[in-house]
Amino acid sequence: DSQDYDKEVASVCPFCGVGCQVSLKVKDNKVVYVEGINGPANEGRLCVKGRFGFDYIHHDHRLTKPLIRRADAPAKGLNVDPNNWQEVFREATWDEALDFAAKGLKGRGREVAGFGSAKCTNEEAYLFQKFIRQGFGHNNVDHCTRLCHASSVAALLENVGSGAVTATFNEIENADVAIVIGANPIENHPVAATYFKQFAKRGGKLIVMDPRGQALKRHATHMLQFRPGADVSMLNAIMHVIVEEELYDRQYIEAYTENWEAEKAHLADFAPEKMADICGIDAETLRAVARDFARGKAGMIFWGMGVSQHIHGTDNSRCLISLALMTGHVGRPGAGLHPLRGQNNVQGASDAGLIPMFLPDYQSVMDDGVRSAFTEVWGSEDFSNQKGLTVTEIMDAVHEGYIKAMYILGENPAMSDPDVEHARDALAKLDHLVVQDIFLTETANYADVILPASAFAEKSGTVTNTNRQVQMGRPAVTPPGEAREDWAITTELARRCGMEWGYDSPADVFAEMKLNMRSLENITWDRLARENAVTYPSLSPEDPGQPIVFGDGFPRPQGRARFTPASVIAPDDVPDADYPMILTTGRQLEHWHTGSMTRRSAVLDAVEPEANCSLHPSTLRKLGVEPGGHVRLTTKRGSVVVMARADRAVAPDMVFLPFAYVEAAANILTNPALDPYGKIPEFKFSAVRVEAA
Ligand code: SF4
């Protein structure tokens, strides 16, 4: 009813990478409800988070004034009550807080590192990486992509030449076969999942592969609940069948790929009969899946953190890329590779250069010509040609004493890092920590100065979803109290650190980004303001963008994609007598990441108010714990107590633990061992002991 609101503003859901467009209904400077609108990814649909998860914007925990740690505050730690922070922090003016923040950073070169966030807009992410590179002369800047799809991107860049998806998820409408592996889209990409379900209802062959059962199973032609960590064995076995039965696309391989003979030879060792026990899937099923996928006219592969968050995450993705290439399932309608992005702007923040190896558009920091193209635009000196440190390496460098000051925007490493006590100890060791956020997050607990920032509904900026769709976010309400837009805060801080930045708006920043980002060709701020979304690449000012890329070759030498054979590497932390079960972590439908937003959303928190884990009913019986009772989970890193749910989707030797709950932080338990290529930690596999609490 139009009486219910004063105005409506089109924007983009701030949660997952699907990037649903929303209409924010505003009354008296408050968002009162939200409806889906006809964006290219969602066509009017929303999930429970998009529809009901907006009231955190107006929560009374919002930061409204800059805060500075009191000289007599207790030692740094998770000891700040968001309702009673006055013992630890005092209010400050913006001038005092910005001067204080800048004083602790300016001139400290390599002692400073920065974490931006996939919650940032493209413009904020671009400014943040520029702040570190221009202001401090190095590349120690990263964000949560390192914890998410870094290994997928490493494999895609290596073998396809581009880290983004080759086809939008909506292209499943044109497919007749699709694999969903290591992803639980009904919970984590719910609107994308509606397209997957429709595909299956139309008769498409849906192949779901996951160590944990899931609701998509109901729609699947094949459900492969394989042993955790056995991805490479299983995928190589499937590809072995494709080679053995000559189901591959010889013409495609000859025209568009390289290193096929090496891949073929490597796969000879992976007969399904040999791999069946290792991956827990019988040989006949592996053969049937190989035939169904290879014989499909158009096939897509979707994957998530279940693939990427392993020490062999890059190898897992290499296998998926090889599978798509050998079957010719790339570059056509209904065919392609699609790592489902987890956060609203993890694609855009990565595109904007918020990573230690790459400047915007994945241009190498090691390339002199690339750096000089940027420093020319920035009007500044050259900076380091060495790749910077990644998220977890930065925390190690704090412990080693190399990094002493940090600027953290929107990221919450005190919850999100693996072996999180190690990260918390590092944050406590810093002699200067600047945190810019909307809440007093767990990370802000460790800050020396806190800069109150803006929620998505309070600012302008573009974001890029999992489909490569650049979309316009618009302000619907004003920030609370003295909170400011993030681009303006970073700009002020840069000026006080000696950088001559003259931006007046995010549109100015976007115009600068376009100077060195070919991906934004034909995409302008005005166009986005008019059209809401444009997919990159866009071939002309009228082209809405290309949903499918690489139909005529790849951005690699000779235009050829590459087969990179993958060998089996065991998980790092294997079960033993003391830690006999396997822990895997993830999100659940109602909560998003570290919970700072969704746990402050009344509806979502009412549905899922308590830290929980899922165990097979037979495991609960053995433990003597009733569903709803509590268990203690212990790994080599630490221990938490959580409520236990009975869930047949979890194998008897596994436990699934969501990571949104500070009172039982999953990352106290997780293993920081890294994939050597993507530098992503092995969140998805830790040896664990489960006991009645
Ligand atoms: Fe938001 Fe993702 Fe849900 Fe869409 S599917 S409404 S983007 S959380």
Automatic annotation (TrEMBL):
The chain holds residues 222 to 914 of 922 of the full protein. One of its GO terms (biological process) is formate metabolic process. This is Formate dehydrogenase. The keyword Lyase does not apply. In the C-terminal section; belongs to the prokaryotic molybdopterin-containing oxidoreductase family. GO terms for molecular function: 4 iron, 4 sulfur cluster binding; formate dehydrogenase (NAD+) activity; metal ion binding; molybdopterin cofactor binding; NADH dehydrogenase activity. It comes from the Bacteria. Residues 6-61 form the 4Fe-4S Mo/W bis-MGD-type domain. Coiled coil: none annotated. It comes from Marivita geojedonensis. The keyword Transmembrane helix does not apply. GO terms for cellular component: membrane; oxidoreductase complex. Keywords: 4Fe-4S, Iron, Iron-sulfur, Metal-binding, Oxidoreductase, Repeat.
